[in-house]
Write a structure and sequence with these properties.
The complex is a heterodimer of chains A (229) and B (186). Chain A has 229 residues and is an alpha/beta fold. Chain A has 6 helices and 5 strands; from the N terminus they run αβαβαβββααα. With 186 residues, chain B is an alpha+beta fold. Chain B starts with 7 loop residues before the first strand and ends with a strand. The chains are: A alpha/beta (229), B alpha+beta (186). At the A-B interface, strand 2 and helix 3 of A face strand 10 of B.
Amino acid sequence: MTRANAAHVVAVVLLTAAPAALACDPAIDPLGPRAKVYLFDYGGAESDDARDRHSQFQAAMLDKAERWGEELSRLGVGADYLEQLQVIKAGKDALAGKPALVGRYWKDSHALQLMSGIVDGASGQYSVRSRMYLGELRGGLESSSLFVGMPITASQFGNVMDSHSIVTFYALAVDAERRHCDRAVAIALLNSLNEKVSDLKRRGGPLDPGVELVATAARARLDELARRP
Amino acid sequence: MTEGAGATRSCRACGEAISAQARVCRVCKSPQGWTRLLFQWKEVTVAVLALVPLWKAAGSLAEMARTEPRAPVVRASALACDSDSFRLALTNVGTAAGLVADVRLAYLSDGRRIEPGVDLVPEGGEPGLVLEPGQVVTLALAPRISGVPTVLQFPRGGGECRAIALVKVKTFEENDSVVEAGCPCP
């Protein structure tokens, strides 16, 4: 049995034994879970074509957020708040070039993550490079900022979305642990993340370096949670 | 004392015989009409006339001592609280203009006060508003963090929750006060 499979078995056992609603400790954070993803306008979308691509990307992110809710509710961990996960179009990126403000904004807005980035069409093929800021939810990552870049072609759109989903699920898992939720919640989220990583590998070969970092951190965390008595 | 053109009478002051029509005594120069009373009681008259402005001045000083300093008294009421807007009614029932300097957000959740570092800024307007005595205004406020738009996250403790606007009122004498208005979390 591989390590990933072992963690999966532990997760299934925990989830089967889990009560209907897995409470978190409300005293940790009276504002509750961090469930808002702020999506700022990406830079570089100056030409009409680039603006169209940017709009497509934003629309796909908003659509994806709705499906995250459904997907997470299917995890069956009783963490109803996961259905409230939402992407908020935050308009012009007023935080660009102000690192101190990024941290403050993340903290005070009670965001799960802040997304900004650029649309690049210099080589004739459009791609997005997203900066996903996780603040104190970086968990085992070295930095609070992750960079995920991918071409935004029709064939790659699913992969782009899944790459962003992986980072988001990681942040949700760290938030669940931060709020002392039952470990089944974090395990379910990290397992779901692992499945997305496997799908990405199956479909498109090597992972984006940013996604690889998250996948490694998630595997390490999952092993640790599975080993815990 | 005799009747007619050459009639005489005694001076009211010195008693010497003087003409019956004389207004002033030819001997002692005392007036013989009612004005002589003024001269007779001139010290008393001067004293009474001098007391009038003194009395007035004392009254004014007493009035100044009794009057409260002029100050704004701002009252606020929250009309609606939402995740991206906060409507507030403000009035000034005081005696001087007040400056609404800034509005901050707080939550009261299960008896615990939380201040998330969010400003409430007039939508499409400059912060800062002068509220004259008797004036009533309503304000549509949008949440901002360092000027960047945000969306409010209300506490989810399950118990009683209120979203509160903390309105800082300044006077031109730099006396700050904070007025609170809140409504139940949506």
